[in-house]
Amino acid sequence: MDEIEKEESLQRNLVSNGRVDIRGRIADKRTTGGWKAAPFIIANEVAERLAFFSIAVNMVPYLVFEMHQSIPKAATHVTDWIGAAYVLTILGAFLADAYLGRFRTIVLFSSIYVVGMVLLTISASIDSLHPPPCTNKQPCKPASHGQTAFLGCALGLIALGTGGIKPCVSSFGADQFDEGDQNEVIKKYAFFNWFFFAINIGALFGITLLVQIQVEKGWGWGFGVPTATMFCSIIILVVGMRYYRHQKPMGSAFTRFLQVVVASLMNHYRGVVLGREDDLYEVSTKESDILGAGKLPHTAQYRFFDKAAVITDAEAITKNRWRLCTVTQVEEFKSFLRVLPVWASTIALAISFAQLSTFFISQGLTMDRKLGPSYLIPASSVPVFSSINALILVPIYEKGIVPILRRYTGHRRGITSLQRMGVGLFVSIFAMASAALVEKKRRNHPKPSTMSVFWLLPQYFLIGSAEVFTYVGQLEFFYDEATDGTRSISSAVFLSEFGLGSWLSSALVEIVEATTGGEEKGWLRNDINKSRLDYFYWLLAGINVVNFFIYLWIARRYKGKGGLNKSVRDEAVRG
Q1: Can you tell me the distance from the alpha carbon of 456 to that of 58, in angstroms, rounded to the nearest whole number?
Q2: pLDDT digits (tens, 9 = 90+) for 352-405
Q3: Which of 437, 443, 427 has the alpha carbon at shortest distance from 353?
Q4: Can you tell me the distance from the alpha carbon of 526 to that of 40, in angstroms, rounded to the nearest whole number?
Q5: pLDDT grade for 540, boundaries at 50, 70 and 90
Q6: CA–CA gap between residue 400 and residue 57 (Å, rounded)
Q7: How far apart are CA 168 and CA 238, in angstroms?
Q8: Which residues on neighbouring strands pair with residue 87, listed in sequence order?
Q9: What distance in Å separates the CA atoms of residue 81 and residue 69, rounded to the nearest whole number?
Q10: Distance between CA atoms of 571 and 89, rounded to whole angstroms?
């Protein structure tokens, strides 16, 4: 009897989601995962965000004052770089889910990140790698092709490193909590909030302390310190190895998606007609045909793709997934398709976020940045208003607002992820309206340089609030709606919208320049005091209004993993 109780106790202490420890054994809750593992993962994210934001907020001034680019061109180059960093998350996610696993992917791309940071530091430190300073006797000389190429190589490696790390860190952190344990499920959602809190801790230090170091010690120190910090983060991550729970790689999800598309089209052109659900193929084993993934129930949505799993000849069942897919494989593809409209309807917000590291900073450059009698706030540190707001709002929301909302709604998170994202999208409208009103006041001021930079506080506060609601809501939504084999890819899809938003911001800047008179006469000129940046902000506010109503229409019709009319098949068609 004691042996039976001991065995049952052991089983209760093992995770139910198939995660394994460093030795490949089913993970034990007592010694792995949870908040034993999460701090190491969060520390890596803090360091990466510290490095990224210290570059992002400094890069426009660096390109303008050191590389002698115009403000619009520098803003475009920075948004293009940020865009590439976030779109490359799809590559990192693919490698993590298919081949390397999340932990190895984070370590590998963190190392690439460090190499890029070293090159950036060298670029800023060696005089021959950037043009000479402008003087009264010597006009500003543009950077040579070689100097630009070296800087581009450094930024490219940093973007690649970011792309590999970002989609894996949040998913790897969430992997440390067992979805079959209600206590750990609650902790997982708290992790998402504190993860976002950690991002803003990194951002806070990156845009204050490191910017101050750059101002006082120069660009070499400004980029060198985050380089050392990023190297230390790899060591911290590796130190926590024995505490981690790992999701084994499950092969290429993109290949499985393509197999579903090909098989369904082939059967469609063969005249296959959907009949009973029992005519759909599923393996007879307890686990699914996808390595390490559980079976998924059949759903009625996107029924066309069910044709990929239709059994046309019961005696000729094949293991060639290009001809016949399992129900689970089809449902995995459907789950991915379901989140795409939600993803698309939040991209507009990313265009507004792109202004944090471009035109918002350009505004701050022209204003009175004095804090007290002697301290001058660096222009690149002005976005600290947004980070401070997030650091204040996250604990208030997690500890104060969520329990109150939970009492009224009965939902364990107070409101759903979709509702939380909607709140953020709504707030973003007022963020850009506020930016437009303040910019009009700044532009019409007789001496803009005497107008306090604290006038920018409302737009930073509102855009920061929008990010708190939307970003964490997206973290929760895209992780929960993903299947076992697509968690990193789902996170990458969410993150890629920031990349697309940055690119769309660059495209919008170029369109506005081309249609309003260029850099000399248009809305966005090299001299911000002669620009009509307020018109540009009103344009963004209008885009956010339209986007908000589109999002409402999509969100009201969304039926995810918890809301679809599912039918779980106990008896599988044997293969």
Answers
A1: 18
A2: 888 876 778 778 778 888 877 777 877 777 777 777 887 788 778 777 777 787
A3: 427
A4: 44
A5: very high
A6: 32
A7: 15
A8: none
A9: 15
A10: 39
